[in-house]
Specification:
There is one protein chain. Helices cover 37% and strands 18% of the residues. It has eight helices and eight strands. An eight-stranded mixed beta sheet has the order 3-2-1-4-5-7-6-8, with helices on both faces. It is of the alpha/beta class. The chain binds zinc ion. The site of zinc ion has 5 residues, from loops.
Length: 255
């Protein structure tokens, strides 16, 4: 199923407010991709994305539509996918990002040829300055496949921008080696509000509160400490000079 096409890409790009280049060249706004396994995996980067959104055009690309998220009946009749896509659109609207869906099967996703080709097309069209995806060692195989799809698409596209990995739930992301800690104290409330858009995944406010607690722990671990933090690393584990994270005043390198 083709959920996205170049016309949709162009329409999304046209919606973003352009900025004029210093040399007076045609207006443009640099883009950032976040490639995730499911609607709600924005939990890994949302507070940092709120810090980046004023400067960059943000795109959230989900490998699946999360259709397994409410059990089997909703998987088969399509109602869960529709609900989760709707919630992702609401969450991304709150963030100011454009959502895209590659439509691999939730719980059984692969770094399939069609998904890779569609991501290649998006990379060539949008020319992002940075691509974030899941740290590839993860207890959820869809997250591993999201990272693999991203790696394959980057290789096939010849794209050479900044590559970063984010951390999702601590019971999922494993053996994570953070390089960057971003102080998200200023945006943690926005992240919590955004996570509450994923109503069907946030029973008893569990998703929002778990991620708030995780950010609080990451802040306490940081040097210097802060109230709330999110962690990231780069592709080769070394700082990206002048990169989108390094430019944030809230970012420190983890020692
Ligand atoms: Zn996920």
């Amino acid at each position: 199923m083709k959920m996205i096409g170049l016309a949709a890409f162009a329409a999304a790009a046209a919606l973003a407010a352009p900025v004029r280049a210093a040399d007076g060249a045609a207006p443009r706004r640099e883009r950032i991709f976040f490639v995730a396994g499911h609607p709600d995996d924005t939990e890994g980067f949302a507070a940092t994305a709120f810090l980046l959104r004023d400067k960059y055009e943000l795109h959230v690309i989900d490998l699946t539509r999360g259709e397994l998220g409410l059990g089997w009946p909703g998987l088969w009749d399509g109602s869960t996918a529709a609900r989760r896509v709707s919630e992702e659109k609401a969450a991304c609207a709150y963030l100011g990002a454009t959502p895209h869906f590659l439509c691999e099967v939730d719980g059984d996703a692969c770094a399939g040829r069609d998904s890779v080709e569609r991501l290649v097309t998006m990379i060539k069209h949008f020319k992002p300055v940075a691509i974030f995806t899941h740290w590839p060692v993860d207890a959820h195989t869809d997250h591993v496949q999201a990272a693999a799809t991203t790696a394959h698409a980057i290789a096939k596209s010849g794209w050479t921008g900044e590559r970063y990995f984010f951390e999702v739930l601590m019971c999922q992301t494993q053996n994570f080696r953070p390089l960057y800690s971003v102080d998200v104290t200023a945006t943690i409330d926005k992240k919590v509000a955004m996570l509450r858009k994923y109503v069907c995944q946030n029973a008893n406010d569990s998703l929002a509160m778990e991620k708030r607690a995780q950010a609080q722990l990451r802040g306490a671990e940081r040097n210097p400490k802060c109230a709330f933090a999110e962690l990231f690393t780069s592709f080769d584990g070394r700082p990206v000079k002048g990169g989108v994270l390094e430019k944030l005043p809230q970012t420190v390198i983890v020692k």
